Amino acid sequence: MGLFDLGGKRALVTGSSQGIGFALAQGLAEAGAKIVLNGRDPARVADAAARLRAEGALVSELAFDVTDHEAVRFAVDGFEAHVGPIDILVNNAGIQHRAPLDEFPPEAFERLLQTNVASVFHVGQACARHMIERGAGKIVNIASVQTALARPGIAPYTATKGAVANLTKGMATDWARLGLNCNAIAPGYFQTPLNQGLVDDPAFCDWLEKRTPAGRWGQVEELVGACVFLASEAASFVNGHTLFVDGGISVSL
Ligand code: NDP
After folding, report:
1. What is the pLDDT of residues 10-64, one digit of tens each?
2. pTM for the whole structure
3. What's the 41 CA to ligand 1 centre distance in angstroms?
4. So which residues are the catalytic ones?
């Protein structure tokens, strides 16, 4: 399984103090990578780092706000200079805001754009500049099943995730010949704090189980295989792809 071995590599996962990001960090560590955890709250990042270290992972903590271009550059450039290279970037940090589109607050729309899309540019560019110097790097952007499908009350989120898939194509188009592999994962519905409102709603759970060919919610660990694949040499000729991990929801009515 050498193709999937991440030994000797270091992976930065944004928004990895909980949820999908933490599970991906855990999975990348199991595949051999050193991990850089991120989130805005240093205490929560430290807490997550302690949990990963207890499992034997080599972990650095790098708290910054992915929406702040200057803070991102400062953190990534400083880390590269003083600790070492970031070989793999997982752009995972993201938020949700649910409201009918005709009542949607413009500030929430802007926050979604900044956190879900602009962050992929900010952190992607900061890391890619170093990857390009080395002629190698892997970027995995976390999109969503909403890349392909809308659902009532989350139109702006849907717009941001469509943009993530297209930005991934653009990154691949600009950077593949410079040695980078840029791809995306589109998760279906996973039980995380971001989705707590839906997890707690029996009517939604009933709808989801009927609507999803696999008949259930996803477990965050089920995203790890796709991430390790796209972060590894196994994906050396995969560029600009969005890999759906959704129990079949995007291929069925
Ligand atoms: P969670 O809300 O559970 O976790 C989000 C993480 O991102 C937290 O660690 C949070 O930490 C961090 N974060 C949020 N804003 C920022 C910021 N500005 N800068 C740095 N870190 C930030 O979300 P999920 O794990 O559910 O989602 C992760 C990704 O997966 C998102 O992009 C989401 O859109 C996507 N996704 C999730 C699905 C699901 O079913 N859960 C389905 C499809 C896609 P802190 O608040 O301390 O900064």
Report:
1. 999 999 999 999 999 999 999 999 999 999 999 999 999 999 999 999 999 999 9
2. 0.98
3. 13
4. 157
For 92-102, what is each residue's pLDDT tens digit?
999 999 999 99
Residue in 39, 10, 2, 28 with CA at minimum distance from that of residue 194: 39
Distance CA 55, CA 219 (A): 20
For 59-166, strand residue ranges (E) read 59-61, 88-91, 137-142
SS3 content of the chain, % helix, strand, coil (to 5): 55, 15, 30
Report the C-alpha gap between 27 and 140 in whole angstroms: 14
Q: Tell me how far the alpha carbon of residue 22 lies from the centroid of ligand 1, in angstroms.
A: 10
Q: Which residues pair with 184 in a beta bridge?
A: 141, 242
Q: For the chain, where are the E strands, in sequence order? A: 10-13, 34-37, 59-61, 88-91, 137-142, 180-187, 242-245
Please give the average per-residue pLDDT across 187-208, as a whole number.
94
Ligand 1 close to Cβ of residue 190 (< 6 A): yes
Sheet of 34-37, strand order = 59-61, 34-37, 10-13, 88-91, 137-142, 180-187, 242-245
Give the pair of three-digit tokens for residue 188. Answer: 């279906």
Protein fold of 2-244 = Rossmann fold (3.40.50)
Residue range 204-217, pLDDT digits in tens: 999 999 999 999 99
CA distances from 189 to 143, 152, 212, 245 (A): 12, 15, 9, 9
Q: Where residue 77 falls among pLDDT bands split at 50, 70, 90? A: very high
User: Rounded CA gap, 25 and 37, in Å?
Assistant: 8
| Residue 115 in contact with ligand 1 by CB distance below 6 A | yes
| Span from the CA of 97 to the centroid of ligand 1 (angstroms) | 12
| Coil/strand/helix, residue 98 | coil
